[in-house]
């Protein structure tokens, strides 16, 4: 893929190892762990059938429940809304069921290797996602300050855009040892990864993304910083991330999380739904043919959790919306952490006070999308005067910001994501209904494409989401602010509980906001596997010596620990 502003290194050697989300904070090979024939571990036979509460039926919760079931435990999944979490795929009323909209996660990098394990496991297909200037994208229009530029490759854009791309490359190399870290991640050179990252964490924890750009001689031009914010790299503009910690951005570019994206054919929500129904071939204790669905009454998860508290014997007691009260020796909490502060009545004794502080300080990004179904991919029609596509994937400083064109062939109905926005740009849409949003978006796009009558191709009502307004989410994903590294470390390492007092053990945090790569499904999977290791260890189990788990290797790869004083 050719990004609008590409990564700093163009790798000429095609034979070098592929990149993976292998660190830099916790360089553990989750993909190797999953692929090993010995499996993820085992528990004592005396614990077979033990119930474990799994709170949240998103990808992290379903992965954790699936792996616990394979070990012979009985996961009890609680879900307030629908299985899938922010893997949410919806249809359009009255339209062909094949037309779908991805309200949450819609594009996944190949570096998400643990995620890919489960995509392959359930037999889903992926295809290239039409990001700006990607190979799968016929054309891209960059529209800034009322001036539009049509491009099929980066070279088609004015020189200033290539200057911005070069400035970003230089900024990463000079300020963040990009090529050295990229090489170490590819080679899975843990000592070198840790050496580079330890220095950067200490140096950059207090730095914003924007401050990092300003400190670079390559970005001394405000105009270059402005264009970079509006157009960005990989998926589009990144100015909504400017106040966030630069460490968050470095994790993305080091692991190529914003490159070579693929979408899941038929929708991403199929992944957790298929895992819910999957009958594993290798399973302990339970008879063949057992699935998560079959372990739950009526094939449905328990309803929303309303209360969590500790009871005698260091048990975790869960009360749900039906008033049912159950007590467990272990629990995994995978919902967004703010739910512990608002929707669920919790005892302070659930977590150490430092962890409560970290939960409270978690910073979530807002995000909104709006999709419309159309009769066909009319954007592939050619303008008679220019010979160009009549409409293109669009990046703009207008209200819509990012517009994506999604089709399944030239003669089939298609879908347009009229707008995908974050943070302040998302909040601008919040008071408006779906139809009001659509009208504003069509007006903005009409100014960019005066010859394209988008409205005449629309065949159904729009669907929209503002994740900050979703009652069981209150935001799209975590994004650390400067100075938040210590908080994130506490949350991520919570699965290592041997140093905790006994009355603080037994409940494990998971989910992408607990990971170092929030907003990416890979982080949801990785933290689910951490929690599975934690529950297994808590119940007296262990991994096979030939396949050590994340907790077994923790002392060698633990995240950098900054001083607290």
Distance between the termini: 45 Å
Strand order of the largest sheet: 7-6-16-17-18-15-19
Query: How many strand segments?
Result: 21
Low-confidence stretches: 1-13
Kindly provide the radius of gyration, computed on alpha-carbon positions and rounded to a whole number of angstroms: 24 Å
What fraction strand?
15-25%
Mean pLDDT: 95
Q: Helix count, per DSSP?
A: 16
How does the overall form come out from the CA principal axes? globular
Q: What proportion of the residues is helical, as a percent range?
A: 25-40%
Task: Give the biggest beta sheet.
Answer: 7 strands, mixed
Helix and strand composition category = alpha/beta
| Oligomer classification | single chain
